[in-house]
Design a protein that fits this description.
Layout: H1 2-11, H2 15-34, H3 41-47, E1 50-51, E2 54-55, H4 56-73, H5 82-106, H6 110-138, H7 142-174, E3 190-191, E4 197-203, H8 208-212, H9 214-224, E5 229-234, H10 245-254, H11 259-269, H12 279-287, H13 298-314, E6 322-327, E7 333-337, H14 338-341, H15 344-355
Parallel strand pairs: 4-5
Antiparallel strand pairs: 1-2, 3-5, 4-6, 6-7
Helix pairs in contact: 1-2, 2-4, 2-6, 3-5, 4-5, 5-6, 5-7, 9-11, 10-13, 11-12
């Protein structure tokens, strides 16, 4: 009890308990995360992210322990009282990024949201009380208080952005659409392996123009597969595509003869412009036509997405749909973009142009 009194004396009537009991609660929640105590599939996906190379759940345990120790120590050495505050500021930046990751990539993880809520509540208590104390101090010594307030605010803002930056860096390693360190990635091809003509269909599952002419693209894909090498590459220009690409990539690699049929099934499951079908819906839909797929693991999913993003970049794709016709021998390339250029006649002319010396 004496330790709690020292912590309160160092940090304040509200700030001390918020930091001490908040760090304990964060530790408990982090342990639950490590043990996998969560109610949705999104939890598992979210917990697999890494911060500075450390699994996010374990990072939470180390962070909570460090926050507890820092809060406890400041009860004896008050000159260190800014350390827990700076840690919370960096946690606010990090949690902001992780909330974005859940929204755009993994789905909502209830346990992660509770952890974020605890961090934000602690931060709000510290901020409100800090503003109150600064206001009181201004009335006694404006000049000295102003300098302290500015320096502390700058330090807190810096730490918040530092946490934001570290989390973005960690996320970039996991988010293939943000990474571009592998040069000259090329698509895999189906069709006639000995052909010199390559026809690459580049689309996005949630591109309105792609969706409108999906059947035409598939018809062309099936037609060109009889005489040329063909590839279908989905570039993630729209975020919901990230959930679908791993499945279409798996079918293309493992069941090439069923790809067009499987793609039609997956396309039929996309009923809104901003929401991807669930893994289970895709599995069940493909099972009806005899195509078996398993939800790809995190590493495999991100590798496929990353690979597609890089292929699109290397091909110079800036919009979808795009069809690239390329001669593997001469390297001559003809690019068709949009619904007006991508027609049966347009692709046939491109094949002839690419084949000319």
């Amino acid at each position: 009890m004496d330790n709690i009194k020292k912590i309160i004396a160092a940090h304040g009537k509200y700030e001390g308990p918020a930091l001490w009991f908040g760090s304990i609660l964060l530790l408990i929640l982090a342990v639950m995360s490590v043990l996998g105590i969560c109610s949705t599939d999104a939890c598992g996906k979210a917990h697999e992210y890494a911060v500075l190379g450390v699994n996010m759940s374990w990072f939470g345990i180390w962070f909570s322990l460090a926050l507890m120790i820092a809060t406890f120590v400041t009860g004896y050495w008050r000159f260190m009282m800014m350390i827990p505050r700076l840690m919370i500021a960096s946690a606010v930046g990090a949690e902001t990024v992780f909330i974005h990751i859940q929204k755009e990539f993994t789905g909502w993880c209830p346990l992660c949201l509770v952890i974020a809520s605890v961090v934000f509540v602690i931060a709000i208590i510290l901020m409100v009380q800090g503003i109150k104390h600064i206001g009181e101090a201004f009335r006694t010594d404006f000049s000295k208080t102003a300098k302290i307030a500015v320096s502390r605010t700058a330090a807190l803002v810096f730490c918040a952005f530092f946490g934001l930056f570290i989390s973005l860096t960690a996320s970039a390693k996991e988010n293939p659409a943000m990474v571009s360190d592998v040069p000259n990635v090329q698509p895999s091809f189906n069709g006639v392996a000995k052909s010199n003509t390559e026809v690459i269909f580049v689309t996005d599952w949630f591109c309105p123009a792609c969706r409108a002419m999906d059947e035409e693209l598939l018809a062309e894909y099936e037609k060109r597969a009889k005489t040329s090498k063909v590839a279908f590459v989905d570039v993630p220009f729209h975020m919901p595509s990230l959930s679908v690409i791993p499945f279409s990539a798996e079918v293309f690699a493992k069941n090439p003869e069923r790809y067009a049929e499987a793609r039609r099934v997956i396309g039929s499951l996309i009923t809104t412009q901003d929401k991807a079908p669930t893994d289970q819906q895709i599995q069940e839909g493909l099972a009806k036509i005899g195509v078996s797929v398993t939800p790809p693991g995190r590493a495999e999913s991100y590798l496929n997405i990353r690979r597609n993003a890089l292929i699109g970049e290397n091909l110079g794709v800036t919009r979808t749909p795009t069809v690239i016709v390329r001669n593997a021998t001469t390297g001559k390339v003809v690019k068709l973009e949009g619904v007006k250029q991508i027609t049966d006649g347009g692709i046939e002319r491109a094949v002839q142009q690419a084949g000319q010396l």
